[in-house]
Design goal:
By secondary structure, the protein is of the alpha/beta class. The protein is globular and about 55 Å long. The protein has an 8-stranded mixed beta sheet with strand order 1-2-4-3-5-6-7-8, sandwiched between helices. It has 2 domains: about 220 residues, Rossmann fold (3-Layer(aba) Sandwich), CATH 3.40.50; about 40 residues, no CATH class. The termini are far apart. It is about 30% helix and about 20% strand.
Length: about 300
């Protein structure tokens, strides 16, 4: 190879390295901007199922209004296969000093299958109850908040009791569910139709979550569906869903809300006009104010 060719290769490698440095690297996770008046303690290990450590980020107000704050657990969405705790849409709650927020990891598809995901959520609740006092957290007042797949999981945190023995309770005191599936069996990706063949249904995210085609395991699917765990002792719910959601039908939230009300549980369903599956409408002041009002009423009123 001639000398000029070496110069060309070196120049290309240098340009590639520089471009990667400028972009922060292809694998670097995008972190959401921390709200003003809030500090973050990142990557606190809360559980270690097997060899996999699970971590959470703790958002704390610079000026808390009391020595012990209620905490809201944020559970991210992403179809149970994507997403990360770094994208914490609940961080705004830590502004003003009224709440702490814990944004958690949980085992995604490929790292675990049902019920690993909900068990991780239970573990986060227990860890906060046992360790929260170190961070100025009141372990008796824990809320759950999530969107999409995270909404699915927080609804289960509010309705599905841990099916084993536990020395520390994993029950939460309030749930805000943003457009989460409440019944896997009736979710469109899990049902055969003119648009979906059996082969497509077998590859749905729900099938990957359960490890089996959803329609073939109705009992397992119902175990992973908040709608089928509703009981009169469930905590208050705020359910918010986009009017035009193309991913999770509005009926999923309507059915959960109706079941909660029928059981005598406090529940409010808010339909966000013009919104799809999340998006800017869910960051509007009136939406975030509604969420703050709900957690203030349920976690700070006593």
């Amino acid at each position: 190879m001639t000398q000029p060719c070496w110069f060309v290769i070196i120049a290309m490698l240098a340009a590639s390295t520089l471009a990667q440095e400028k972009s922060g690297g292809a694998k670097k996770k995008k972190m959401q901007k921390v709200p003003s008046g809030v500090k973050v303690e990142r990557d606190i290990e809360y559980a270690k199922p097997g060899v996999l450590p699970l971590k959470l980020d703790l958002y704390l107000p610079d000026k808390p209004v009391s020595d012990k704050l209620p905490v809201v657990i944020w559970v991210h969405g992403g179809g149970w296969k994507n997403g990360s705790k770094e994208n914490c849409k609940a961080a705004f709650l830590a502004q003003g000093g009224d709440f702490a927020v814990a944004s958690i990891q949980y085992r995604l598809i490929g790292k675990g299958k049902w019920p690993d995901q909900i068990n991780d959520c239970y573990s986060a609740v227990r860890w906060l109850r046992q360790n929260g006092s170190k961070y100025g957290i009141d372990g008796s007042k824990i809320g759950a908040f999530g969107s999409s797949a995270g909404g699915h999981l927080v609804a289960l945190m509010g309705t599905r009791k841990y099916d084993g023995l536990e020395e520390v309770s994993s029950r939460v005191q309030a749930v805000c569910d943003w457009f989460g599936p409440s019944e896997l069996l009736t979710m469109p990706p899990n049902t055969i139709s003119e648009k979906r063949t059996r082969a497509m249904v077998e590859k749905s995210n729900g099938a990957r979550l359960l490890g089996k085609t959803v329609m073939d395991v109705p009992d397992l699917a119902n175990d992973a569906s908040g709608l089928h765990h509703v009981s009169k002792d469930d905590p208050p719910f705020l359910i918010m869903h986009g009017e035009l959601d193309p991913g999770v039908p509005l009926a999923q939230s309507q059915k959960l809300h109706d079941a909660l009300k029928k059981a005598g549980v406090e529940s409010e369903l808010v339909i966000v006009n013009g919104a799809g599956h999340g998006g800017k409408e869910f960051q509007a002041d009136e939406v975030t104010a509604k969420v703050r009002e709900f957690f203030t009423k349920t976690l700070r009123s006593n």
